[in-house]
Amino acid sequence: MGRTGFTRRALLGTAGAGLLAGAGAGVAVAYARTGGVDEPAGGALGSARVPFHGEHQAGILEPQQARVQLAAFDLVDGLGRDGLRSLFQRWSKAAERLTAGEPAEEFDNQVALDAGPCSLTLTVGVGTPLFDKAGLADRRPAALDPLPAFPGDALDAARSDGDLFVQIGADDALVAVHALRVLQRLAAGAASLRWQSAGFARTPGATARPMTGRNLMGQIDGTNNPRPGEDGFAAKVFCAPGGDRPDWLAGGSYLVFRRIRMLLDHWEALPVDRQERVIGRRKADGAPLGAPAGAGEHTPVDLAAQGPDGALAIPADAHIRVAAPAANGGAAMLRRGFSYHDGPAADGSPDAGLLFLAFQADPRNGFTPVQRKLSRGDGLSRFLRHEASGLYAVLPGVPAGGYLGQQLVDG
Ligand SMILES: C=CC1=C(C)c2cc3[nH]c(cc4nc(cc5[nH]c(cc1n2)c(C)c5CCC(=O)O)C(CCC(=O)O)=C4C)c(C)c3C=C
Ligand SMILES: [Fe+2]
Q: Where in the numbering of this chain does the Dyp-type peroxidase N-terminal domain appear (predicted)?
């Protein structure tokens, strides 16, 4: 099949087309991949396509792709609102073509010419400094005030923040790198690359059955995420106007990025039963500690459960106890992190960890209270170091005929 011959029907078949009727198309396409739908042999991974247009940007609700490129850009001085609009238009046009498996019209270096879209998604956010620089100071949401400093932070400014942020996910590394390169070249004269980080998650099909992926500490990570379709899901993840929430961000979200180094030499020296007590879940199957025999990853957590000695089965400083919405006034977020491994650091220890990404309706009652609590009382924090950080307003989705950020620059 030629590169432009990939079609959604070819990907989804009858079962997938049924899914499309009941959900956002992008979500349906991606969930078809992990939801037990029989996939055609050969090329299915490449032909999987997530539409660029929709109420929300793609790359939030879809299962994580195998590869991610994260990047931040800084606007050139004096770009202004018109320059920003023009950049958003160029990026939107390219994103629409690339996610459909078409070469970009401009600056396509042909690197991904043989590949299909591979579930490519491009998700764009704006950082606090952009508003002043682009003459949009009156549109800056209060929720975009910089995150507070947390105890233990060791943040590198050069790998943090930025005026614009992009998350580029794909099931093929070359497809993701290619898309970033196109965006970078389209930004020439308007914005320059500030930092870039590459990450990975499990490749679809790598396990015998679809299951939540593991991080570099070996834990099943992402189990207790809010799920699309659950009561109150949209209110936890997406912005709605009202109060100090601006109209232009309706359907958007806030993204907290943290580059969190894992101190793997220390972690791996800990026996598995102690590792499990640090998190509060079994390592092998992700079941909560203290759960009855036969429990699994999705068995509800009982924070009051006791062991045979009468002590709490999930220790007082276990990560899932300290991070739980119940312990944080209901604070919730959709975590969609990727692992990274950039080889040995100067001291020989692995420069590896988690590119933590969490989407939420408002960081002031999402990430911030939870991280404040974790930084003081989480047993896991002894094995982590937060090395970079960013907070971005994720632009609303783009309707057909529109472009990214239109509500912000034109509204
Ligand atoms: C401020 C928010 C959070 C940070 C930072 C964070 C870092 C972090 N977490 C893990 C591993 C796991 N986290 C798990 C659950 C979990 N984590 C957070 C928040 C942050 N984690 C929440 C809100 C939850 C859910 C709590 C609950 O309601 O049960 C788990 C358990 C499985 C799961 O539910 O995903 C693991 C494992 C690492 C390794 C890490 C930093 C590198
Ligand atoms: Fe966590």
A: 57-200
